[in-house]
Amino acid sequence: MNVKRANQIHLPTPTPMFNFLRLLSITLLASCALIAQADRISLGIDTLQQSGFRAIAGKRVGLLTHPAGVNRDGVSSIDVLRRAPNVKLVALFGPEHGIYGNEKANVPVDNKIDPRTQLPVYSLYGKYRKPSAEMLRGLDALIIDLQDVGVRSYTYVSCMRYAMEACFENGVEVVVLDRPNPLGGLKVDGPPLDRKWRSYVGAFHVPYVHGFTIGELAQIAKYTSGSMDVSNKVRQQGKLTVIKMRGWRRDMLWPQTGLKWVPTSPYIPDLSAVLGYAMTGLGAQVGGFSHGIGTPYPFRLLRYKGKSALQVQQALSAQNIPGLSFRILRTKTKSGASVEGVYVSVSDWAKVHPTEISFYMMQLTAAWTPGNPFANEKNPALFNKHVGSTAWWNEISQRGAQARTKGFVSKWTAQAQAFQRSHVQFRLY
Q1: Beta strand pairing status for 88-94 and 112-113?
Q2: Long-range contacts at 69-72 (CB < 8 A, ≥ 24 apart)
Q3: What share of the chain in percent tops pLDDT 70?
Q4: CA of 59: how far to CAs of 56, 171, 413, in Å?
Q5: Residue 239 Rama label (left phi>0; alpha psi -120 to 50; beta)
Q6: Helix and strand numbers, DSSP H then E, in the chain
Q7: Could you tell me the pTM of the whole model?
């Protein structure tokens, strides 16, 4: 990977963003250069506005967005489009968690009237995951402005693909306002998605950490045969416009953009959680691991039922996972209870394969739980929809603690690199 290594500095006990930001600490001169560059970054919504809204001039539009759908000044894209001249915003569409991010995870959301704008809000995480013809009636274009986190199983990119299918079937143009991948555009890692496991959990045949912006993923859906659940004729005739960013480079992690992070969902409140989700999100699905939900360190603070923090730290350290280190940390849950866990620190981002730790967590789960919980898992389909690999399920359910984790990680690394080379034509930056 071509991610540049930053100078490392020693700081006090980690805050939620401590280790992520430490990786990006650089000399004063370089920082000034990055700040100057960040000032020039325009998000897709900014580029659209700077063009005088040319791509949607004279059109009746809907907007699929959430709280992180803001311009570089923090103004909601809803309000930017409501004020746009010669544009008629007539409907809003909400993904998981809703347009204001106040809906719980995995909980269906109903259609409603937005009390702030008086616009209809169509939920795409309730009765419908895909917009109906009735929802799209009267629209010339559906604008999509969703901030992704760079991980396949995050539902916003799935929501985008389903919306694209509906629009293509109903003759509605899709306009995607592009945004940075917070993990950068060079880091690609983890198992590819087996076709049989394609679902709303994982709607793209990409490695778990995919290295694309949401606009680039839209192009993959539009221009790749078999990428959508519509006929090739419908896909080819569908109209897609991606409004590019200006000033973003693939080697930029989020802090280098100079943009403020807006929580994309209740469990992703900050940049530390973004990185943690890529690393540990898969590792706590089965067995006794928890990954910090309900603490100030979501997806970064690991605990295992029946094991001390010291035992977890020693077991993870013994795996010798490149680029990671582990320290015992005491904190409090949202309810005020004291907890002790193991904080996952990134010591060298360039060496990290983000998903690697999750698979060692699974192996430890099999070792620490009598009877191998994977062999007795009642809902392996949900597990496989997240992980995406039938081969890994067969390995961990049959071999348990003896799973050949290192070999799988090596194979997936090679596959991810091959994927990166074969999909370079979809890069916009």
Answers
A1: unpaired
A2: 69/45, 69/145, 69/146, 69/147, 69/177, 70/45, 70/262, 71/43, 71/45, 71/46, 72/41, 72/42, 72/43, 72/46, 72/259
A3: 90
A4: 6, 14, 45
A5: beta
A6: 14, 11
A7: 0.89
CA-CA distance, 3 to 188, in Å (whole number)?
11
In sequence order, what are the beta bridge partners of 112?
121
Each residue of 171-182: pLDDT tens digit? Answer: 999 999 999 999
- Largest Cα span, the chain: 65
* Rounded Cα–Cα distance for residues 219 and 238 (Å): 12
For residue 225, what is the DSSP state?
Answer: T
Asked if residue 70 lies in contact with residue 76, where contact means CB atoms within 8 angstroms, the answer is: yes
Residue range 145-161: average pLDDT?
97
3-state SS, residue 141? strand
In angstroms, the CA 185 to CA 427 distance is 9
CB 62 within 8 A of CB 164: no
**Residue 296: other Cβ atoms inside 10 A:** 19
pLDDT digits (tens, 9 = 90+) for 388-401: 999 999 999 999 99
Residue 15 is predicted with a pLDDT of 53
- State residue 39's pLDDT score: 58
Is the Cα torsion angle 249, 255, 257, 262 positive or negative in sign? positive
Calculate the dihedral angle through the C-alpha atoms of 154, 157, 158, 164, rounding to the nearest 10 degrees: 170
Over residues 231-272, the pLDDT tens digits come to 999 999 999 999 999 999 999 999 999 999 999 999 999 999
Burial class (CB in 10 A: 0-12, 13-18, 19+), 226: exposed
Structural domains of the chain ordered from first start: 44-178+213-250 (3.40.50.12170), 271-424 (3.90.1150.140)
Residue 204 tokens, joined = 């793209």
What is the token pair recorded at 292?
Answer: 């910090």
Residues 63, 76: Cα–Cα separation, whole Å: 11
Residue 12: the pLDDT is: 41
CA distances from 170 to 133, 229, 239 (A): 7, 14, 11
